[in-house]
Amino acid sequence: MEAEKKLRKTGSKIRASYIAFAHKEKKRLEGLVTDLEQEIMTREKEVERLKDIAEHAESLSAADLEHKKQSPLYQSLLTHYTALKSLQHEYKKHLEREKALGEVLDALRTGYNPNYQDMAVLEAVRGWETLAGLPHINDVRKAEEEGSSVGATETAREDTKGEDTEEGLWSPERIERELNKLLKVDHVSLLLEHEKLVGEPSQSNLVVFDPTAYLPDSFVPSYLAFRQNLLSWLELLGIKVGYSDTSAEANRARQALSDAEHSLKLSREELQTAHENISDIFDPEGFGVEGEWKKLDGLCLEKDTGEYTYEICLFDEARQKPNKGGSSYSLGKFTSWNQHAEPGTPEYYTRQRYTQGARCWNGPQRSVELVLACGTENALLTVSEPEKCEYRITGTSPALCLPVEEGKRDEL
Known about the structure:
Shape: flat
Order of helices and strands: HHHHHHHHHHEEEEEEEEH
Number of strands: 8
Largest sheet: 8 strands, mixed
Oligomer: single chain
């Protein structure tokens, strides 16, 4: 009795950590929901912006767009792009050279012998230590001999990263983070957006669009063949066709819109999943009233019986794997807890059902009843097969170890 009490006391402490994990997970998911809601608002605005750009681009002929590209604004954007690209290239070259030089000087600093009184080397080492914000190597060696902390080295290196920069200028970290984004900006979209903002009228009143962007894929070849035949007949009749294909930029604008809509859809789906995960944590029919089983979601337990190894990934799937080669078999997917007990009661969480596994030869589909009890470890103990392809596996889990006072009333 004393041993069982001690086991429950130890197990209940582990169970308490599982409950704490569930609350932390709920808090994390709530933070994720807040971030996703903000992200979705931003993406919705971006979709609307790109939709306006795509519609405007489709209303322009290729000649119109080429004319607009001659604007000083667009040419300036291209010049700035080239300058940024060149600066990025040089910046990366300098970073690589600085890293290589630092490695050479570090090797010199840690390897030179101060007793040789080589003043040139000494000055080089001290110059590098000053530049890099490092303590003098002799002080480091003395500290190591005395057994004191040498953490000042790393602290000094970190301090050099916090050097003041002129107000408004980017730090090296921001340059690395933001420069690629700037270089990926679509300048044609910016041009069209700028034109819309300032209200410059188009040179052509003809609204041109690409029907292939709206037709089902199976109709596109027929449409293109019909259009080509029509244009050929009109040319033979001496009729000039004032039709111009939609520019490649218009197609790019439509693709950018499609990508943004897809990203918005994924964010909305992620938000829905986060809401569902929050509601599942403390669901009595899911991870328990106190969320004590959330920590174990997907945890895989194994039992080697000699011929086979039986694996159960909690709340997922049970499998039978031969130890001497051959195919493994699904024993079923998680279906429910103990259907003969009330959800939320201790007895309810003592059994799990895994059903709809691989079908046996001339038999039923494989299934598992997992019978659990309080224990200090998550483990599988025994495997039996009471009926053909119907397995009974026993195991233990701290999640079933109620506090001792409550355990006296509810023996599992």
